[in-house]
Amino acid sequence: MKLKISIFKYVLPLLAAGLVVFAVSHALVAQRAEPQTPPVPPPRSPFGDTVAGAGMVEPSTEASGTGNIAVGAQLPGIITKVAVRIGQDVQGPVRVFGTTVREGDLLFEVDPRLTEADLKVREATVAVNEAQVGVAEATLRTTRDQFERARLSRESGVVSEQDYVTAEQAYLSAQAALAQSRANVLQARAQADQDRTQLKLLRVRAPVTGTILQVNVRPGEYVASAPGQSLVLMGNLRPMHVRVSVDEEDLPRLILHAPARAKIRGDVNQAEVPLTFVRLEPYVVPKTSLTGVNTERVDTRVVQVLFAVDPEHPLVRDKKVLVGQLLDVFIEARPGDKPNRN
């Protein structure tokens, strides 16, 4: 009995005290743990005074704000042929990245069979109307001869006034029929030309010389003529542009044509890509996080500066700089000699 009392009186309090000491010591050791070194160091500016910003790589094509040309279909239908795909050149040689096309090269084709059949009907209609013109011309010659005879006979009193009026009206009707037949020919030819134009529209071709970035359509798919569709995405990559968003607060320190460098995010070597100034867009826009989503949160307002990337740079040739990629861009704030501060 006395043994049990001693256990509750001395052993349990000592055990509780030991647990408290262990918990406190563990917390102190955890707080003293050294912070882990990040696997990739943050980018460092190569300049002393710098204006920094995030840059989005885009084609140099003059398109709607991004440089990417989204090619769609003007007429709805079933896709029967896709002439390009990522990794294959139109002329035959295989390329690992992108497909280079020239202006006017075929990209894809919508099913043309219905339009081709309708064109044959239109062309046959043209032939029928042209034959009707020949008939109308022959009728006109006959009625003109009859009218001339009636006019001469009327002057000599052989033909009555009623016969003369009848011959005259027949001649005028033949003239109107010939004019109508010729108008029918023009109409039929215009309808045939309309079908030929539709056939051209069904064969969608490259609007500019550039590189195929995405192919979002396959044979057998139905496409509609909806605005904003991007069945084939393309753009000119020689050179590529970098669209840099500079905060409006940095505008007083921004100097155009100043040296600029871009760094690839995640590059442990911190390799630099020289940039060449292209232009500054003189319209301040809301800043977004540049993820491509239209509902991004607006933080501040920025001015967009475009720089060109040398297509022969090793990082560009090795496909380390791609369209849509985010780069860390640093622009020297005071190029050349710094002014004397004394």
UniProtKB/TrEMBL annotation:
GO terms for cellular component: efflux pump complex. It comes from the Bacteria. GO terms for molecular function: efflux transmembrane transporter activity. Residues 70-233 form the Multidrug resistance protein MdtA-like barrel-sandwich hybrid domain. The keyword Signal applies. Keywords: Signal. SUPFAM superfamilies: HlyD-like secretion proteins. The keyword Signal applies. Residues 1-32 form the signal peptide. InterPro entries: MdtA-like_BSH (IPR058625). This is Multidrug resistance protein MdtA-like barrel-sandwich hybrid domain-containing protein. It comes from Frigoriglobus tundricola. The lineage of its organism: Bacteria, Pseudomonadati, Planctomycetota, Planctomycetia, Gemmatales.
